[in-house]
Design a protein that fits this description.
With 165 residues, this protein is mostly helical.
């Protein structure tokens, strides 16, 4: 059912665009927003690109294999993670970079099982990235977003992919 698959992908894309648009409606820097050190800014940008990578990888799986679970559900969470990180940057007047990733430069998987295995590995990597970020001296809002994103990857995404093989 190619029409159904494309409809799901289109809905996924539109949701992501709406989330990022909502994030860009922030009023900009505020006097109570703590500036990011160069180290923290670099770490947040790395986390953002990692979330973009996961989102595009899962969209690639959906394009190749159809609206398969858990990819169909987790891609929405990845979009929320990206939007939350983008919001941290926007509130500080830092330009949010475009994704370095698209569905044509991410891994492809021939089967759902291989996609699940690859996604589980990616979630382990994502958790480790947040572990490194969370040892830095972080403003409260950055710590909250990173803790939330890490927790979702550890308690929801990783188990979903580990169990779908």
């Amino acid at each position: 059912m190619p029409g159904r698959r494309m409809g799901g992908l289109l809905a996924t894309y539109l949701l992501g665009a709406a989330l990022l648009s909502a994030c860009s409606d922030d009023e900009g820097p505020t006097s109570t927003t703590v500036a990011l050190t160069p180290t923290v800014q670099t770490a947040v940008l790395s986390a953002l690109q990692d979330e973009y990578h996961a989102e595009e990888t899962y969209l690639r799986v959906l394009a190749d294999l159809g609206d398969v679970l858990p990819f169909y559900n987790v891609v929405y969470a990845e979009q929320r993670h990206s939007a939350a990180l983008a919001g941290l940057l926007q509130r500080r007047g830092i330009a949010v970079p475009e994704s370095e990733w698209n569905i044509n430069n991410v891994p492809r998987f021939p089967t759902r099982a291989s996609a699940c295995a690859g996604a589980a590995d990616a979630e382990v990597w994502n958790i480790a990235l947040y572990d490194q970020l969370l040892v830095l001296a972080l403003p409260t809002d950055v710590q909250n977003v990173c803790t939330s994103n890490r927790s979702a990857s550890r308690t929801k995404h990783l188990p979903a992919f580990a169990n779908c093989r």
